[in-house]
Amino acid sequence: xxxxxxxxxxxxxxxxxxxxxxxxxxxxxxxxxxxxxxxxxxxxxxxxxxxxxxxxxxxxxxxxxxxxxxxxxxxxxxxxxxxxxxxxxxxxxxxxxxxxxxxxxxxxxxxxxxxxxxxxxxxxxxxxxxxxxxxxxxxxxxxxxxxxxxxxxxxxxxxxxxxxxxxxxxxxxxxxxxxxxxxxxxxxxxxxxxxxxxxxxxxxxxxxxxxxxxxxxxxxxxxxxxxxxxxxxxxxxxxxxxxxxxxxxxxxxxxxxxxxxxxxxxxxxxxxxxxxxxxxxxxxxxxxxxxxxxxxxx
Length: 298
Prior knowledge:
By secondary structure, the chain is α+β, with helices and mostly antiparallel strands. Helices cover 26% and strands 30% of the residues.
């Protein structure tokens, strides 16, 4: 996440996507959430947001590109603004311009990427001079989305509980990724239902070994899994075709991110996948990214 002050009343923020390098759903909790075990990695695919203070104590959201997003009170940006306004009782409003580049409902951080929540909290903190540190902002963000506190880390972390237990990690990140998102909508809520993780279900979390090289890291990741992938590959054969294209073109590992439908491939050397004949048959969105570091950018 990268913040640039334009004026004292306006800032620009690049909000990154995150990939679940592996994802286990361990069991359902009493509060309705699920306990997970996952390795999150921030990557170089960004939504761009510009925040400006307004005298009127309200929020105004403008979309740069033609995306089917609500700009009303159910929007995550609006929820984050009202949370901050209620908590700190500041009198300002926010004008927000959002340029969406992260595919919608892609398994890269929710329909409106959860990164916009932490960006809005940072914007309120910076523009209204609230003086909050990353941990304080992360605790506030947790009430809106379980994954949001991750974005206040260095960019790579083992995430457990419902998303609030975060242990920063330092695994090798000298690789590239190709993200492939087909035009398939997969509901996160339905995905959890199909997993059938009840209160009595119990699963031993995967323990990723210490790794000193990129090759060791990728090999260890191959021993893990994505629990959602198992059910979605049966329902959506197109996802299997995407995995096959990535592996056939030299991916060391191909796996679903989050609850899908994005499939990522990890490469030591990037090929020109779009020359593959299979790709022409599918209306797939491609992004080439690298792991990024967030620490020190707030």
